[in-house]
Amino acid sequence: MKANFIEINSTDELDDLFQKSSEKPVVLFKHSLTCPISSGVYQEISKAAADINLIIVQHARNVSNVIAEKTGIHHESPQAIVLRNGKPVYHASHYDVTAEDVEKMLEARH
User: What percent of the chain has pLDDT over 70?
Assistant: First the structure.
């Protein structure tokens, strides 16, 4: 595992991340503790050399819902979203989430 997981439990923390995305890209990862697909994708995204802001949907459903509202991206889990300037520039769910894609989006200049 290379990823640095940071669990997000409040909408205040989420608001801070949306603001920070103006300085550098931010990765959000919605994860379900009860879904075997989510468990496998968690292992995949853990390979990304990045800070991964982890939203465990069973612990922070309200945070997950606010992400959907702010980005316009329908909730799924597992789901990865990369924010830049407060807007999603990448999103994928289930087995479409790859550490390589997330790293590419973090390195991209937009």
Answer: 97
